[in-house]
UniProtKB/TrEMBL annotation:
Cross-referenced SUPFAM superfamilies: Growth factor receptor domain, Protein kinase-like (PK-like)
Positions with biased composition (Low complexity): 973-991
Chain intervals with Basic and acidic residues compositional bias: 992-1002
Binding site for ATP: 952
Domain Protein kinase positions: 916-1230
Keywords: ATP-binding, Kinase, Membrane, Nucleotide-binding, Transferase, Transmembrane, Transmembrane helix
Name this protein carries in UniProt: Protein serine/threonine kinase, putative
GO molecular function: ATP binding; protein kinase activity
Keyword Transmembrane helix: yes
Keyword Magnesium: no
Transmembrane segments: 734-762
Region annotation (Disordered) ranges: 964-1002
InterPro entries: EGF, Furin_repeat, Growth_fac_rcpt_cys_sf, Kinase-like_dom_sf, Prot_kinase_dom, Protein_kinase_ATP_BS, Ser-Thr/Tyr_kinase_cat_dom, TKL_Ser/Thr_kinase
Length: 1234
C-alpha cells in the first residue's frame, strides 16, 4: 500500500486502496485529502464543498472577476463601485464623483467626436484616448480594468456605435492573464501558452504544455511521457530507474526506446542494453572502462534560444531558426540574414542587403533595400538610378532629381551658398553669413551690400557696413542703426529709436511692451493687445478685459466685466477673482451691498465695512458668521472714526472695548477707562499710585494748589512736595540713618567670624576622622616586632623609611584586570611629614595608581600603608618609577624620591603592538588593511582596522594622573592646615550626548571586530586559520593570524589558470575547507559567510597535511545561546553564496552553510564564477533566480562531484546533507582521484 507520493501528487483512498493522483479523480482539482475530498481547485474554478466538485467561477457567480479556489466565494467582481455615467446636469470630477455643472465649466466645444476612441478636450478638440481606456461620455474616459477584472483594453462591439456600456466588451487581457475560453470571454490568471487572439491554450488531460489542443511538449501525470510533440502512455515502467517530471522516464535498467518506454529485455553477460529499430532490438555489449564516458544534460545550452519550456527551446533569437530534430535546437542563419528557414534559404535580409536567390547581397550605403534594389540611402547620400551617391561630392545637403535624372541642389553644406541650383564657396560671392535654412547669403562681407538680385556688391556708405538699395542695413561695430527725422536710415553712436528697448547696429532689435517692430521703428499695438507682432491688429497676447477668440484669431472685449474682474480664467471670458467691492458668482462679478467694502458668500455678508461710504464695524454685535456694518451717524462724542468705530473720543470720554466713547468719572478731565483718570478737573490732584483724583486740601500737609499743573505746590512743616506733585514727603536726616547702619555691619562681621571659626573646627575634626578611616597607620615599633624591615630611601637629610627599595609584583599578573601590591612609608626623624605619590601611565599599555591618592600626614614614629594597583591592557613586562613627594612641615621643604615598580603579565591574546613588525601591504578592504609581518619569530598576517580613533576599548578606562609639579604645589598649599582636602580627580565625567552616525558606524565595526576575535580565540583546529592574538590599543587596533602563502582561494583563481592547479588539489582544498566547517558545526557555530574569499590557501604541496584553512568569523554565531525552537533570520553574507531561505528572509540554520559551500565547491572545481557577470549584472538577479529554485549549470564530468553539489544546494534545507556526510563524500572523491 502506498504511504507517500512524489511531489505534485496527492495520496488518497479511492475506495479500494491508497493511491497517488493529481486530481483525485475530481476534474480541475489540484489538491485533495486522504479521503478524496478536494481542498483546492485550479483557477478560474471554485470549490463547491457540498458536491465535492470544481465549478467554473463565472457559471456560479454572475459578474464575477475572480473566485476563491478553496471555497465557493467571490474574491473580486467585474463591476466596481466606481461611477461611470452621471445624471443630466452633473459631470464626473477627477475623483470619479458626480458634481453639479457650473457656469465656469461652460467651455466652447465641438458637438461630439464621431469615433468611440476619441473624446473632447477643454479646447473642444477631439483627442485619442489611451489604449487601456474606453469612452464613457463625450468628454470623459475610464480604465477598462474598472469595468472588467484583469482587462487591459476594451471596445464597443461597433467602433462608432452609440455609447452603451452593455455594448462594451474586453478585447485584450493584462500581462499574465488570458481569456478563459471563447464561450466564457473572462480574463483569468494562467501559466499556459496563449494564442494570437488572447485565449489560453487548453491542453489534453495529462499534458502540462502544448502549442495547440492536440500536441504535447511536457506531461504532468506519472502515467504519460512526451516525445516528438506527442503524449504517449508508459509501458514497462517497473524498469524505469530515473524519472524526470515533464519528460517521463529518462533512464531504464535495461533499455529505453524512442517513445521513452523501458524495454523488458533483461541484461545478460554479453548484452549491456538493446537498441530498438523498427520493433527489433540489437544487443550492445558493455563499454570498456578505458572508454571515455559522455554526459548529456537536458538543460539547453543553445546560445540562440530565446525561450525555453521544460528544457526544450520553443523560440529562437533573430538570425537563428528552430530546426526539426529532437530536442529542437537553434541554428544560425546565413550571413546578413535576419529570418530564415534553413541556413541556405533566407527570408528577410539585414539593412543594406537585398535578397537574391535566397542569399543576401550587399547594397553600398543603402538604408532601405528591396529585392529590386535600394529605395532609400543612408545619411549624406542620395539615390540616383538605384544606386547611392555622396552628397559631399557636390557640396549639397539635399537634392532634387528631375525627370531627366538631373541633380539640382536644394540645400547646401555649411559655408556654401546656393546659386543657380549649384553650391558655391561663400567667399567667392563676398558672403559673410549664410542662412542655413535656405543656403542663401544672409549677410555680405564688410563694405559689401545686396543688390536687387541678392548678390553682394561693393559699397562706400559712411559708418555703414551693409546696405541694400541705398538703405543701410547694418552699421559698423559699436554704431547703432536708426531713422532720421526725414525717415532715412542713419548710423550714429547716440541714436535712440523711440519706444525701442534694445538698439543694435542693424536697427531696433526689440520694442517696448505694447509696441511692435515695423522695419526699424516701433509702432503702438491696438488697445486690445498687450503685445502684438507684424501689425497693430495681430495680437500676440490680449490686454486685460479682452479674450482671444480662436475662431477669428482676434482679441474680443468682454464688456463691463472688465471693470469688475481682477483676474480672468485662461479662457479670458470668465472671471476667476473680482475687484474689491464685488463677489464672484458663477464666473460673474456682482457688486457688494453699499455697507460692504468687500463681501463673501453673498452680497450682504461683509468682509470689510465701507468706512469711506459712512459705515463702521460694530464689534459689540459682530460674530464669526456675521460682521455687522453700521452707519457712523449712530456714533456720538467722537472726533474721528476708524474701521471699527471711534478712534479718538472727546475730552471727558474714553474708548471702550467695543470702540465706542463712554463718559469718564465726574472728577476726571480725561481718562483711559471709568476707574483710571489721566488728568483731573480743577481743584483736584491725580494720585499716581491709584490714578484717582483727590481734592488738593485732602492731601496730608498740602498748603497750596497750582491751577496750571493741577498738583500740590507747597507743603507744611518739615515736608516737601513729592516728585509727582501728589503727596508731601518728610525731609531725610542723613546722619540719623548712617550711624545705625555702621553699628549693624560691625555686629554682622563679628557673628560671621565666630561662625567661620566654629565651622572650620568642625571641618577639621571631620577631615581628621576621614583620614583615619582611609589611611592604615601603624607604629614603627609595632612593625618591627612583627618582623617588618624598613629601609631608608632618599638622601641623608631628606630620607624616609620604606618597607622595600623596589616594588615587585610576584608572578605573572592577569591582563585587563587589577593587580595590587602593598608597601609601608614611615617617619623616624621629623615631627610631621606629608606624603603624596605621583604615577606615570602608558595609556596604550597599562594603568598604574597609588592609593591613598591624596596627601597623607605621617607623624614621627609612625608608618602608613600604601597600595600600588596595576591594570595591564596587553601582554608586556615593564619597570616604571613612581614619585614620592615629601613635605617637611617644620622646614617647609619639599623633596622627591623615586621608587621603581616591576611587573610582568601573563601571555594572552591581547598583544603588545610594539612586538608587531609590519613588512609590506598585502591588500585592503572596507574593514581594514592586511600587512605581512612578524611576531616573536613567526611570519604572520596583521589585519589593521581603518578609522579606529577610539579610546578605552576593552579596558576599564585610562587615568591621567597629575604631574610631579602639581603634586608639590598641592602639598605646599596645605602647609597651614593639619589635614587637606582631597585633590580633585583628573578624570572628569564626559558630558553625555547622542552619538553621531559616524560614531554608531564605528561602534558597529568594533563590535564585529570583537566578535571575530572572540570566535578565533576559542577555535583551535588545523583547518581553521591560527590566531595569535589582537591589539585593542586605540589607533593601533589589529588582529594577528597565520599568513596564507597564496592568499585566498579567490586570489588564487585570479592569478593562476585552471591548468596550473590540478583537479586533485582543488578537491583537496575543498576537503580541508569542509573539515573547517565541520569543526565549526560540531561546536554549534554557524559561519554565515562561506565563500572562496574565506578559504585561505596555505600550500599547494600534497606532502603537506593541510592545504586550505577557513577564516573570517565576523559573521559567525553560536547557536547554543538560542532556544531550541529559534533560528537566525537576519540576512547575512554575500548574495551569490546565500541560501534561498536567507534571500527569502526565512529562518535558517546550519544547512545555510552547506548551501554556500556548494556554490564554493562548484566555483573551485570549475575554476570560474558560476554566475557570469554579463548574464547577472546585479546581485538581485542572482537572488531572484535562486529563490525560484533554479541553479547554475554544473559543467563537471564527474558524476559524484555533480551529485554532491546538487544535494548540498537543494531548495529544502532539510534535504541537504550535514557536514559530516559532506566530508565523507569529499574524502571518497579525493581518494578516487588518486
Amino acid at each position: 500500500m502506498c504511504t507517500k507520493c512524489n511531489d505534485g501528487l496527492n495520496l488518497y483512498n479511492n475506495g479500494i486502496t491508497q493511491t497517488c493522483s493529481q486530481d483525485c479523480d475530481i476534474t480541475k482539482c489540484v489538491k485533495c485529502d486522504i479521503n478524496g475530498m478536494c481542498e483546492m481547485c485550479e483557477e478560474p474554478y471554485t470549490l463547491d464543498k457540498t458536491t465535492n466538485k470544481c465549478k467554473l467561477c463565472f457559471d456560479e457567480h454572475q459578474n464575477s472577476g475572480k473566485c476563491s479556489t478553496t471555497e465557493n466565494l467571490i474574491e473580486l467582481c467585474d463591476n466596481s463601485t466606481t461611477c461611470i455615467l452621471c445624471s443630466t446636469g452633473f459631470v464626473l470630477d477627477v475623483n470619479n464623483k458626480c458634481v453639479a455643472k457650473t457656469t465656469s465649466m461652460s467651455i466652447k466645444r465641438a458637438t461630439n467626436c464621431e469615433s468611440n476612441r476619441q473624446i473632447l478636450d477643454t479646447e473642444g478638440n477631439c483627442v485619442d484616448i489611451l489604449a487601456d481606456e474606453f469612452k464613457v461620455s463625450e468628454s470623459f474616459s475610464m480604465k477598462c480594468s474598472n469595468l472588467f477584472y484583469g482587462c487591459y483594453s476594451c471596445d464597443y462591439k461597433q467602433l462608432n456605435s452609440r455609447i452603451d456600456i452593455d455594448n462594451l466588451e474586453c478585447s485584450a487581457c493584462q500581462n499574465g492573464m488570458a481569456f478563459e475560453s471563447r464561450e466564457t470571454k473572462k480574463c483569468v490568471t494562467t501559466t499556459n501558452l496563449i494564442d494570437n487572439e488572447g485565449y489560453k491554450i487548453e491542453c489534453t488531460t495529462g499534458c502540462s504544455t502544448c502549442t495547440n489542443g492536440t500536441n504535447c511538449q511536457y506531461t504532468n501525470l506519472f502515467e504519460h511521457t512526451a516525445r516528438l510533440d506527442a503524449k504517449l502512455s508508459y509501458e514497462n515502467h517497473k524498469y524505469c530507474q530515473k524519472y524526470q517530471e515533464g519528460f517521463g522516464c529518462i533512464e531504464c535498467s535495461n533499455s529505453i526506446n524512442l517513445n521513452s518506454n523501458c524495454a523488458d529485455m533483461e541484461r545478460t553477460q554479453k548484452c549491456s542494453f538493446y537498441l530498438e529499430s523498427g520493433n527489433t532490438y540489437k544487443c550492445e555489449g558493455y563499454i570498456e572502462s578505458s572508454q571515455t564516458k559522455t554526459y548529456v544534460t537536458l538543460k539547453s545550452e543553445d546560445v540562440g534560444c530565446e525561450a525555453l519550456s521544460k528544457g526544450l527551446c520553443i523560440k529562437c533569437y533573430s538570425k537563428y531558426f528552430l530546426n526539426k530534430v529532437y530536442p529542437p535546437q537553434c541554428e544560425s542563419c546565413g550571413d546578413n540574414c535576419l529570418t530564415c528557414t534553413t541556413p541556405t534559404l533566407c527570408q528577410v535580409c539585414s539593412n543594406g542587403f537585398t535578397l537574391v536567390n535566397g542569399s543576401c547581397v550587399s547594397l553600398s550605403n543603402c538604408l532601405v533595400s528591396t529585392p529590386s534594389g535600394c529605395t532609400a540611402c543612408n545619411n549624406s547620400y542620395y539615390l540616383l538610378l538605384g544606386s547611392c551617391k555622396m552628397l559631399s561630392e557636390i557640396h549639397c545637403k539635399s537634392v532634387v532629381i528631375t525627370a531627366n535624372n538631373e541633380v539640382q541642389c536644394s540645400l547646401c553644406e555649411n559655408e556654401y551658398i546656393l546659386s543657380d541650383t549649384q553650391c558655391n564657396d561663400m567667399s567667392t560671392g563676398h558672403c559673410q553669413s549664410v542662412d542655413l535654412s535656405t543656403s542663401k547669403c544672409a549677410i555680405c562681407e564688410e563694405k559689401y551690400k545686396f543688390d536687387e538680385t541678392k548678390k553682394c556688391v561693393s559699397m562706400e556708405t559712411t559708418l555703414c557696413s551693409y546696405s541694400s538699395s541705398g538703405d543701410c542695413l547694418q552699421c559698423d561695430s559699436q554704431i547703432s542703426l536708426g531713422t532720421s527725422n526725414e525717415g532715412e536710415s542713419i548710423c550714429n553712436t547716440e541714436i535712440k529709436t523711440i519706444y525701442c528697448k534694445e538698439n543694435s547696429n542693424t536697427g531696433c532689435a526689440k520694442c517696448s511692451d505694447g509696441y511692435y517692430l515695423s522695419g526699424t521703428e516701433c509702432l503702438p499695438c491696438d488697445k486690445k493687445c498687450s503685445s502684438c507682432f507684424k501689425n497693430a491688429e495681430s495680437c500676440f497676447t490680449c490686454a486685460f478685459g479682452y479674450y482671444f477668440d480662436t475662431t477669428n484669431n482676434d482679441c474680443i472685449y468682454v464688456g463691463e466685466l472688465a471693470e469688475k474682474c481682477k483676474l480672468f480664467l485662461p479662457s479670458g471670458v470668465d472671471c476667476a477673482a473680482c475687484n474689491e467691492g464685488y463677489i464672484l458668482i458663477n464666473t460673474d462679478c456682482v457688486k457688494c451691498d453699499e455697507k460692504c467694502l468687500s463681501c463673501v458668500g453673498n452680497i450682504s455678508n461683509c468682509v470689510k465695512c465701507n468706512v469711506k461710504g459712512g459705515y463702521f464695524e460694530d464689534v459689540e454685535f459682530t460674530t464669526i458668521e456675521d460682521k455687522k456694518c453700521v452707519t457712523i451717524t449712530t456714533l456720538e462724542n467722537c472726533e474721528w472714526v476708524s474701521e471699527y468705530g471711534y478712534a479718538v473720543c472727546y475730552n471727558g470720554y474714553y474708548q471702550n472695548k467695543y470702540y465706542k466713547c463712554t463718559k469718564c468719572n465726574d472728577l476726571c478731565a480725561t481718562c483711559s477707562n471709568n476707574n483710571t483718570c489721566s488728568t483731573c478737573v480743577d481743584q483736584y490732584v491725580l494720585i499716581s499710585k491709584t490714578s484717582q483724583c483727590v481734592k488738593w486740601n485732602l492731601i496730608v500737609n498740602c498748603k497750596s494748589y497750582d491751577l496750571k499743573t493741577h498738583q500740590c505746590s507747597e507743603c507744611g512743616g518739615s515736608n516737601k512736595v513729592g516728585p509727582n506733585g501728589d503727596e508731601c514727603v518728610h525731609k531725610t536726616n542723613v546722619l540719623a540713618i548712617i550711624l545705625p547702619i555702621i553699628f549693624g555691619i560691625l555686629i554682622v562681621v563679628i557673628i560671621i567670624i565666630t561662625i567661620s571659626f566654629i565651622l572650620f573646627y568642625i571641618h577639621y575634626r571631620k577631615e581628621e576622622k576621614l583620614r583615619k578611616s582611609l589611611v592604615n597607620e601603624f607604629l614603627l615599633k609595632d612593625l618591627k616586632k612583627k618582623g617588618v624591615e624598613m629601609v631608608y630611601l632618599g638622601t641623608q637629610k631628606e630620607r624616609i623609611l620604606c618597607s622595600t627599595q623596589e616594588i615587585r609584583f610576584e608572578g605573572e599578573i592577569v591582563v585587563q584586570k587589577d593587580s595590587d601590591c602593598k608597601f609601608m612609608i614611615g617617619n623616624d626623624r621629623a615631627s610631621l611629614l606629608k606624603i603624596q605619590f605621583t604615577t606615570q601611565n602608558d595609556e596604550e599599555k597599562f594603568e598604574l595608581n597609588v592609593e591613598p591618592s591624596t596627601p597623607v600626614s605621617i607623624k614621627k614614629g609612625r608608618a602608613v600603608e600604601f597600595t600600588v594597583t596595576v591594570h595591564p591592557l596587553c601582554t608586556l613586562e615593564k619597570t616604571v618609577d613612581i614619585t614620592c613627594s615629601v613635605l617637611n612641615i617644620n622646614k617647609g621643604k619639599i623633596s622627591e624620591i623615586k621608587i621603581p615598580v616591576k611587573f610582568a603579565s601573563e601571555m594572552s591574546t591581547a598583544l603588545d603592538p610594539d612586538e608587531l613588525k609590519k613588512k609590506r601591504k598585502l591588500g585592503e578592504g572596507s574593514f581594514g588593511i592586511v600587512y605581512k609581518g612578524a611576531y616573536r619569530g613567526n611570519v604572520v598576517a596583521i589585519k589593521e582596522m581603518k578609522e579606529m580613533v577610539v579610546a578605552k576599548l576593552g579596558a576599564k578606562g585610562f587615568t591621567k594622573n597629575s604631574t610631579v609639579e602639581s603634586s608639590s604645589r598641592n602639598l605646599a598649599k596645605n602647609t597651614t592646615k593639619s589635614t587637606t582636602k582631597n585633590n580633585t580627580t583628573n578624570n572628569s565625567s564626559m558630558t553625555t550626548r547622542d552619538k553621531t552616525a559616524a560614531e554608531k558606524q564605528m561602534d558597529k565595526k568594533m563590535d564585529e571586530f570583537r566578535k571575530e576575535v572572540a570566535m578565533l580565540a576559542k577555535f583551535v583546529s588545523p583547518y581553521v586559520i591560527r590566531f595569535y592574538g589582537a591589539c585593542f590599543i586605540p589607533n593601533r587596533i589589529c588582529m594577528v593570524t597565520e599568513l596564507a602563502k597564496y592568499g585566498s582561494l579567490q586570489d588564487l583563481m585570479k592569478h593562476k589558470m585552471s591548468d596550473e592547479v590540478i583537479m586533485k588539489m582543488r578537491i583537496k582544498l575543498m576537503l580541508d575547507t569542509a573539515k573547517g566547517i565541520q569543526y565549526l558545526h560540531a561546536n554549534n557555530t554557524l559561519h554565515r559567510d562561506i565563500k572562496s574569499d574565506n578559504t585561505l590557501v596555505t600550500s599547494l604541496d600534497f606532502n603537506d597535511e593541510v592545504n586550505g584553512k577557513l577564516t573570517d568569523f565576523g559573521a559567525s554565531r553560536n547557536v547554543d545561546s538560542l532556544c531550541d525552537n529559534m533560528m537566525y533570520t537576519k540576512c547575512i553574507g554575500t548574495p551569490k553564496y546565500m541560501a534561498p531561505e536567507i534571500t527569502n528572509v526565512e529562518k535558517y540554520t546550519l544547512s545555510a552553510d552547506v548551501y554556500s559551500f556548494a556554490i564554493t565547491v562548484l566555483e573551485c572545481l570549475t575554476w570560474k564564477d558560476p554566475f557570469d557577470e554579463k548574464l547577472f549584472p546585479y546581485s538581485w538577479d542572482i537572488t531572484n533566480l535562486i529563490s525560484k529554485g533554479e541553479r547554475p549549470a554544473i559543467e563537471l564530468g564527474d558524476g559524484k562531484q555533480k551529485a554532491l553539489i546538487e544535494e548540498m544546494w537543494k531548495q529544502d534545507p532539510r534535504e541537504r546533507p550535514d557536514m559530516d556526510i559532506v566530508v565523507g563524500r569529499l574524502e571518497n572523491i579525493y581518494q578516487a582521484d588518486n
